[in-house]
Each structure stands twice: as C-alpha cells, then as structure tokens.
Specification:
Elements lengths: L1 E8 L14 E12 L12 E7 L2 E4 L10 E12 L4 H6 L3 E8 L7 E3 L9 E7 L2 E15 L1 H13 L9 E13 L12 E7 L2 E4 L16 E8 L9 E8 L5 E9 L18 E4 L9 E3 L3 H4 L8 E6 L13 H4 E13 L19 E13 L12 E7 L2 E4 L12 E12 L4 E8 L7 E9 H6 L26 H11 L6 E3 L3 E4 L2 E4 L3 E3 L5 E3 L2 H9 L15 E9 L2 E17 L17 E13 L5 E2 L6 E11 L7 E2 L3 E4 L4 E14 L4 E6 L9 E6 L1 E8 L7 E9 L3 E2 L11 H4 L6 E2 L1 H4 L1 E11 L5 E15 H6 L13 H4 L4 H13 L1 H33 L2
Parallel strand pairs: 1-7, 16-28, 17-31
Antiparallel strand pairs: 1-6, 2-5, 2-9, 3-4, 3-6, 6-7, 8-9, 10-13, 10-19, 11-12, 11-14, 14-15, 18-19, 20-23, 20-32, 21-22, 21-24, 24-25, 26-27, 27-28, 29-30, 31-32, 33-38, 33-46, 34-35, 35-36, 35-37, 35-41, 38-39, 39-40, 41-42, 43-44, 45-46
Length: 868
C-alpha cells in the first residue's frame, strides 16, 4: 500500500488566539484535495486517504476509490490539544503537523506515498515519496488557543459547522468534444476493441459513445456532450478533470485501459474576447519579399502550442509508478495510448456561448491524405561504429507503410546531408503518427537505430494555424520558388473568412484589400515565364495571410514556409538526444486538387574544375648552403605545390642549382583537377580512410593552394625555406614586380586588395614566401612569380595541357643563354666585391690623372718659357 507523508510547520502566519487561562488548543485541519498522486495500483490508480498526526492525536479522512486526484473536502477537528510552554513560544515555534497519505489495499498493508511541508495558507504543496515527487495537496490549518470557559461553546460551534470546507458559488457547464483514441496498447494480452471514455469532475461526469470497432475507426460517432458542474470562483480550488478509458467486453464486463488526471481546468475555461471597437488599420506590404525559409531551432509544435488549439491530446497511463524497488519505471513506460478531446468550461454568465464548441466542427470520418516528408540533414548524430562514425540512412514509418532508404546510406558521417523527399499516402485517423528514424548501416548483422522522432500529423491537419503547407513569403508562378500549395492565396483567404464568418475579403483599387476592419496593401502585378506582367490579387491575399494574427476574433499566426529542427531520441535512452534532424512535412488532402511535384532538395553536386599554376621565377630566396671551395652562399631551389586535402598529389618543379642570388627560373606548370561546391566554397574529396575501408568517405575542405620553396640536398633531407597559402576565394592580388612584393601581403591581408580565382579566372603576379623565426614572427624568405589559371572541366578537356615544362614556351630572357656569364660577372662585381671594385677604380683614376699630369707637364713648361 502506498504511503505519502506530509509534514507541515504551523508558523506565525496561522490564526492563533491567546488565552492566559490554560494552554489548551484546538486544531482545525481543512483537507480539501490532492492531485497527481503516485499510482500505487497496477491499474494506474490509487485508493487514497490521509492520516493527520498532531501531538498525541491522529485522524483520518475518508477513503476515495480509484482516483489520483481525491477531493476529500473535510474538516478534521482536534479537540483538547494540550501544549506546554508559553503562548508566545508556541506561536513562534508551533509543533509539527504530520500528514501521511496512503493507498488503501484490502490484501496487503497500506502503501505509503511520501511527505510534504506547507504553511497554513490554503494552497497546493508538494508531496514527496523519498526524494521523488508524489503529487500535491491543498490544505489549510488553524490552531486556536481557547479557555476552559470558552471550550464548550467552541466545541458546539465546530459541531454545528458544515463538514465541507468550501462552497460552490459558480455553476458551470463543461462541454466535451470526444474526438478519438490513439495507439491503445493491449490489456492482459487482449487487444482493445470497444473502448469508451468516462470523464468526471467534481463528482459529476459523462460517458462518451462506444467505439464499435477501434481497429477500423478509432474516432467517436457522437462528438459533443456536456454536463453541469459546480466550481469555486477561485481557480486554485478547481477540482481535477479525471479521464478513464475502459474496454467494454462481453457480458457487461469492462476493463480499465488507462487513465489521466488533468490537474488544472484553467486552459479550458471560456473567456469572452474583447469586443471593444477596433480602429481601421492599414498595413502596407508593397515590398517584394525574397525567398527565405524560416528555420526553427526546435520542433514546430513548440512554436504553435503543440497545435492543440483545436484538439488536446492526453496520454493515458496504466500500471504502478516507479518506487524504491523499481527506479527504472518512468511515465513514458506507463503510457498506453492517447485520448484526443476538446473541452470548454463555461460559466452560466456565458450561456449565450453554449454552442461555442459546436462552431465549425470538421467531420471526423476517415480522410485520405498525401503526406510529403522532406528530410534535409541530420546533425550531431551519436556514433554507432567503433571508429567513432556512423553510416546513417533514413527510415519512414506511417501506419502500415514503411520506407527504408538503405541503398542511399552516407558513409562515415555524423552530420549527413540527405536532401531527400518521400511521398506516403495515409488515412486519418488510423495513420496519424509519423515516425522518422535514422539508422546506422552495417555490412554484417542488423542495422542499429540511432534515433527517431515522432510527429502527430492529425493535430497539424486540423489546427487553425494551417500546418498543412507553409505560407511562403511571396507568390510566384514559375522559378525555384513557385507556389506549391494546391490552393492559391485568394482561395485560402476566402476559406478562412468563410469559416470565421468574417466580412471580406474585399479587393479594391490601388492594391488594397479589406478584411473586417483591416486594410492591407500590396503589389497587384505578377510576371509570367515570358516576362510579361499581368494583374493579380494573389499578392494582396498573401499579405493578409502573413498578418492573419492581426485579424480580430479569429486571427492566429499561420505556419510559414519553414524548416523545423527535431531531436532524435532512442527508446532505450529516454530524454537523451542522439542528434537532431532538419525537416518539414506537407499534408495534402486527396479530395482536393493534386499538388505539384515535390521540391528538389537533393544536395548540390560538385562541379569539376582544373587549376593550372605556372611557376615562372623566384627571387630573394634565402641562401642556406655554403660553397665548399669559395665559401659563397647558395641554394638549390625548387618549388612544391598542392591543394589542401590533396597532399598525395604534391607536385615539384625542377631544381635551379647553385643560385647565388636567390633567383630561380622554372617555367613549370602544376595541374590540379578538383571537384568544387560553389555554394559552400569547399572542395569535395572522396577517398577511402584505409585500405580496409568498404567505401569512400566524402570530405569538404576549403579551397586553398599551398606553395613552398625548398633547398634541395643530395645526401640529406631537403631544407624547408618558406611557404604561402592562398585561399582561392580570397587572396591578395599579386604584385607586378618583385620589388613591390613585400611581407605585408601576408601579415596585413586586411589592407590589401583581394581577388577570387573563381571570379578572376586568370591572374599573374609576385607573392612572398614566409617562415617563422625563433621569435615566432613571420620573416620574408623569398618571392615567387606565378600565374594561376582556373578552367571548368569542359574547358580543360577542350584545351588540355601537360605538367612540367611543356606548353607554353619559356620567356624570352631564358633563351638568351649568352647573357648568363655577364649575369655571373655582375653578381661578383656588384654584389660581393662592390667596395673593392670602387676602390680599385678610384686608384686607377688617380694614377691615370697623375700619369697624364707628368706626361704633359714638361711640354707645357717649355711652351710657357718660350712664350709660345
């Protein structure tokens, strides 16, 4: 038997009347009700009663059978309670009240639930069973100190007082629209065949019509019923709404299928809308919107109140809740089905709205629907293989239809891009729950479930938010953003106005439309496939639909064109996300115009390109080697290049031997074919992770060209001198000359003019080679003159070239071989022996001047003496 304890402290807020005659008290315990109690019986219900302990006395409430929300509505009076101590001390620190709630069991001992604490105000307080919540209880307490003289009159007062603690001054009518039952599980291995729903509130209730064949049609034939109920004005004191589903069997027997207790009636209470006069308002929507899908970071239901504006879905529970011996039992394990219902609670002051629930009720006969599921991608999937990856694919289940896209699994990906659409025909209400699963493909053995998400399509179909097909941001009759709903905006608007009994729509001149007291403005022209413009009201109607929540009385937000992000859960790991899936669902009734073809959301295919890199020259390359004979610095230069992610396709130029100036001449071509996604600006590479891999894995890598300069060595490893990495989408424009090429082109990229090879197609210039020094700072280690030429795959096939020193020809300067000795002499004279050469030339000039002076001086003196 379940036992729940309530321990309460009577604090100074309690009503305490002090007397100096004798310390005798009277305790009044107002036991009103409890709700959401722990399910202690196998039926999922309990037979609760409460036992109150105070000082040396105890009392019990009455036992209420088979309920989780008992309403005792009793006053328990503890007479002649003797307390010791000063009255002020008892007022400041009153004794503890202990309340234990039990489940009555006729065979075993009563089962204990758990204890809460609460102050003396009449309100709900938590009940605990150990450390777990076991429900709530509404109660209040009064501790009165009375004198011996007043005790008798006080006792008579209590005896004459009503036993009930509350009155019901607010008679109301509870209207119930019985819609249907879903996903009922077996009871004692027998299928549920003829279910019925019993609803009770405040001691009164109704029964639904019997479903004659649950398997054939789980909806009720008689929809609306109502009954009178007396409710307190204070909503806090409202009794719970108890739901019980039974299966009616032969010979008048019935078996409990499941139950639920709705603890609050607040969301069912009818409240009249504000009928104040609303001023006419103009909304200008003359801007043509661009195509954009609303991406919700969570389920669509969380954005639109679970689509319960028309129907509420209540889970049905059966079985005992988890206790200390079975901590693994959760509420999810106890769910045995769903009950779909709509409820309105009307006070007698709103009797004129008695037919509010009958307004615009759709028929609940079986209806055929085309369900179109778009699955874009999954993210952060839980690894399913020992290599920390997964091979995911999509599985769809709706009713008896099951689709497994096993052939199109994506190898070794935790963030797969699917881009798939599936069309499934369903019949509501039998096929109302859509399950989208992600499985891990295995070569041997069964495939493993990674996670799944479930969607209630029926609630979406009947919701006033119109979740059947999202409202696009603009109306188009051709192109990639063509209108895909079978109904045009004008037809949708006309239907909404008719269903809501609204005045409109009235289309006027100058691009105006009026609905009720709202005026909207939008363009009235549309362009067809031939570029011709014609008049249309579709833009006007679409503008109203996008502002439908502003329409008085019946307005609500309509579901826009969207992508929802849903968590993937595993049944064996409840509450733990196994990843997320981005998708959306369209619903098209089969009795309406057939929709167009599904949108093509397949992943973009990479486009083939070929990058041709011609390395012409290098300059100012650092010199690493020392000449054995002369001691001169030199380097044997060559350039290496590759595209990022394709290191195995490295290509090297030939070696320019014994460069003593850092200059090198190559005229060498690198050729890099690659696949490229323009939208993502990524290179796509498919390769096997290892020689034992079954298939290739796809990688997406930024498009970057790496160029390095090396010093070739014969007997040791080549020496790395410097490098530069060029992002092909954004890299500094090459300098025109080697002198203009500086290290700032790397260190201050933000201030340099940037180019993209995918836009420029061909570019030539000088770029610096850099390396980090001992201080971890960049230093210039050389310069390279290169030419980048990008061609598409088709262009490359039409104009093939070879690698290395094939076409084009070497530059003209390279053919002047006879200039090479002079260049060597220039290096010796101008670089290494510059000052020595200047000194020698200066001395020679002085000697020549002195020789000329000595040679000409005698003749000049003779002429001077002879006077010639």
């Amino acid at each position: 038997m379940a036992h729940i304890s309530v321990i309460g402290l009577i604090d100074s807020c309690m009503s305490v009347f002090l007397s100096t005659v004798k310390q005798i008290f009277q305790l009044r315990v107002h036991m009103y009700q409890a709700r959401s109690l722990f399910a202690a019986d196998s039926t999922g219900l309990s037979d609760p009663f409460a036992r109150v302990f105070y000082s040396t006395q105890s009392q019990v409430t009455e036992i209420l059978a088979e309920t989780l929300c008992p309403t005792w509505d009793q006053l328990l009076v503890f007479e002649n309670v003797e307390l010791f101590g000063e009255a002020t001390e008892l007022r400041d620190d009153p004794p503890i009240i202990v309340i234990e709630i039990y489940d009555q069991d006729t065979v075993m001992a009563d089962e204990h639930y758990g204890p809460p604490r609460f102050p003396p105000q009449l309100e709900y307080y938590q009940i605990y069973r150990g450390n777990c919540s076991a429900g709530e209880m509404l109660a209040a307490f009064e501790l009165l100190q009375v004198s011996v003289i007043l005790f008798i009159s006080s006792k008579m007062y209590v005896m004459n007082k009503r036993k009930k603690t509350t009155k019901y001054p607010n008679p109301s009518i509870l209207q119930v629209l019985f819609w249907g039952l879903r996903d009922l599980k077996r009871v004692n291995l027998a299928q549920v065949d003829r279910p019925r729903v019993d609803i009770e509130c405040a001691g009164k209730g109704i029964q639904s019509a019997l479903i004659p064949n649950y398997k054939k049609n789980p909806n009720f034939s008689t929809l609306v019923k109502w009954f009178e109920v007396d409710l307190p004005e204070n909503e806090l004191l409202h009794p719970p709404l108890n739901i019980r589903v039974v299966d009616c069997r032969a010979f008048g027997r019935y078996t409990l299928v499941g139950s639920n207790a709705v603890t609050s009636l607040r969301k069912f209470i009818y409240r009249a809308t504000d009928n104040a006069t609303l001023l006419e308002k103009e909304i200008n929507a003359s801007i043509i919107f661009v195509f954009s899908n609303k991406v919700y970071p969570k389920e669509l239901e969380s954005e639109f109140d679970n689509f319960e504006d028309w129907l509420h879905s209540f889970n049905l529970f059966r079985g005992k809740g988890g206790d200390d011996d079975d901590q693994n039992v959760t509420d999810e394990d106890r769910i045995v089905g769903k009950f779909k219902v709509r409820t309105e609670c009307l006070s007698y002051s709103f009797l004129s709205y008695i037919d509010c629930i009958l307004f615009n009720i759709p028929h609940n006969d079986p209806i055929n629907v085309l369900v179109r599921i778009y699955v874009i991608r999954a993210t952060d999937l839980h690894p399913a293989d020992i290599n920390g990856k997964a091979d995911p694919y999509i599985a769809i289940r709706l009713g008896k239809t099951e689709i497994k896209d096993k052939e199109n699994y994506i190898s070794k990906q935790l963030n797969p891009l699917f881009g798939k659409s599936f069309d499934v025909e369903a019949t509501f209400p039998m096929d109302s729950t859509l399950t989208v699963s992600i499985y891990d493909w295995d070569l041997v053995g069964t495939d493993d479930l990674i996670g799944e998400t479930k969607i209630d399509l029926e609630n979406r179909f009947y919701s006033k938010h119109r979740a059947t097909c999202g409202i696009t941001s603009n109306y188009a009759i051709h192109g990639y953003n063509v209108w895909r709903d079978p109904m045009k905006p004008t037809q949708i608007l006309a239907k909404l106005c008719k269903d809501g009994k609204l005045d409109g729509p009235h289309y006027g001149p100058e691009g105006r439309v009026k609905v009720e007291n709202r005026v909207f403005m939008a363009p009235t022209e549309i362009e067809d496939e031939n570029g011709l413009k014609k008049k249309t009201d579709e833009h006007l109607a679409l503008t109203v639909l996008k502002h439908w929540e502003e329409i008085p009385r019946v307005g609500c937000k309509l579901v826009p064109e969207h992508v929802e992000t849903r968590p993937l859960l595993h049944p064996d790991k409840p509450g733990i996300e196994q990843g997320r899936i981005e998708m959306w669902v369209d619903l098209f009734p089969k009795d309406m115009t057939a929709p167009g073809p599904a949108l093509d959301i397949a992943p973009r295919k990479p486009k083939k390109f070929e990058l041709r890199v011609i390395v012409w020259n290098t300059d100012e390359v650092v010199l690493e080697d020392d000449d054995i004979f002369t001691g001169e610095k030199s380097s044997d230069i060559f350039v290496r290049g590759w595209l990022k992610g394709q290191q195995e396709d490295k290509q090297d130029t030939d070696v320019h031997y014994h460069s003593i100036t850092g200059e090198g001449n190559f005229n060498w071509r690198f050729v890099y074919p690659f696949d490229y996604l323009m939208a993502e600006e990524k290179i796509v590479i498919s390769k096997k992770e290892s020689m034992f891999a079954w298939d290739e894995t796809e990688y997406k890598i930024p498009a970057r060209l790496n160029l390095q300069v090396w010093d070739a060595d014969h007997f040791s490893a080549d020496d790395f001198l410097g490098a530069i990495e060029l992002d092909l989408n954004r890299f500094p424009r090459g300098a025109k000359t080697a002198k203009q090429c500086t290290i700032e082109m790397v260190t201050n990229e933000g201030e340099m003019p940037m180019v993209s090879i995918f836009k420029q197609k061909r570019i030539k210039g000088w770029w610096p080679f850099v390396a980090r020094n001992e201080e971890d700072e960049f230093e210039l280690t050389g310069k390279v003159e290169a030419e980048l030429h990008l061609l598409t795959g088709e262009e490359a096939e039409r104009s093939p070239v070879g690698e290395g020193r094939n076409e084009p020809d070497r530059p003209d300067i390279a053919l002047l071989w006879f200039l090479i000795p002079f260049k060597a002499a220039k290096h010796l004279v101008c670089d290494q022996y510059r000052w020595l050469t200047i000194k020698i030339l200066s001395v020679l000039m002085l000697l020549a001047i002195l020789g000329l002076f000595l040679y000409n001086m005698p003749g000049y003196m003779v002429k001077k003496m002879l006077g010639a």
